Amino acid sequence: MSGPQDLPPDLTFGELALRSPTSSSTIELLRLQKQIAHRRRADLQLRSRIPVEIASARSATDMKNLVFRSCDPVTRRDFAEWVESVSPDDLHHYELLDGFVVREPPAGWPHGELEIEIGRRLATFVKSRRLGRTFGSSQGFSLPSGDVVEPDVSFVCAERWRAAQPLGGFLTVVPDLVFEILSPSTESIDRGQKKRIYERNGVREYVLLDAEARTLEQFGLVEEGARFDGGRVLGAGETFASRVLPGLVIPVGELFADL
Question: Domain extents for the chain?
Answer without folding.
Answer: 1-47, 111-256
